[in-house]
Design brief:
The protein has 10 helices and no strands. The chain has 243 residues and is mostly helical. Helix 5 runs antiparallel to helix 6 and helix 5 runs parallel beside helix 7. The longest helix is centred in the N-terminal third of the chain and has 39 residues. It is rod-shaped.
Length: 243
């Protein structure tokens, strides 16, 4: 409801209140006033005053406050809707399949959204217990062309899924391939570091990954996280755009 319509409502209530109060005053000063009519008119004026107060409190004042605040602090700035917000909301409501569907819609509009891919796989692992489906999602995504940073991010997510499948050998093979194809980069160095982690996990028999408990970070932050095991608590930020 626009501010003009709200002010129109307020003006209408003010006019009704003025008429009721004027009639009540007129009746009260007559030689033989109708007391019941006077009471009704005054009661109507009081109720109208309450309605005016509600209109001011609920409709008019907040709208004026928003306009004033926007004028001084962000006159030209429009609030952008987070494309991931709907999926996050559905997941919080216990609807993982609905969240996955929203992330898939995001990917149709922006195929380079690696965070959406990562979140789909994480939901499959954590909420649906379907690591096979998660692996297929990322394996299929890795068939496309990615920047080194994005490709490394997705490959590390697939490593996490393989570890959740209790398949450290396959996870190690992927890391070796990653270190080889990106030789001389920080992504290769991080892959080599993870290879040592996997080797230690094979010795100790502990292959679990914290990936399913934590939301993935941006590709660059996730790569940095691999340098210091175990993973730190993760935050949520937008993955880098395709280079």
């Amino acid at each position: 409801m626009g501010i003009s319509l709200r002010l129109l409502f307020l003006a209408a209530f003010l006019y009704v209140g003025f008429v009721l109060y004027s009639d009540a005053e007129l009746q009260a000063h007559m030689a033989n006033p109708d007391n019941s009519k006077v009471v009704l008119l005054f009661a109507g004026a009081v109720l109208d005053a309450v309605a005016i107060a509600l209109v001011l409190t609920v409709l008019v004042v907040p709208a004026i406050g928003d306009r004033v605040g926007s004028f001084f602090f962000n006159p030209d700035q429009k609030i952008e809707h987070d494309p991931h917000a709907d999926a996050i909301s559905k997941l919080a409501q216990g609807d993982p399949e609905g969240a996955i569907e929203d992330y898939e819609n995001i990917l149709r509009k922006d195929p380079a959204d690696t965070l959406a891919l990562s979140e789909i796989a994480r939901i499959c692992c954590r909420d649906l217990g379907d690591t096979a489906r998660a692996a297929i999602v990322i394996e299929h995504a890795l068939e496309s062309d990615w920047s080194q940073e994005q490709g490394s991010f997705l490959a590390n997510r697939l490593v996490d899924v393989y570890l959740l499948q209790d398949d450290p050998v396959r996870a190690r093979q992927l890391l070796v391939e990653l270190a080889s194809t990106m030789e001389g980069t920080k992504f290769a160095a991080n892959a080599l570091h993870r290879i040592h982690e996997v080797d230690r996990s094979i010795e100790t028999g502990s292959h679990a990954s914290s990936y399913i408990e934590n939301s993935p970070e941006s590709a660059d932050e996730q790569e940095q996280a691999h340098q210091d095991p175990p993973f730190p608590p993760a935050g949520e930020s937008e993955p880098p755009a395709t280079a």
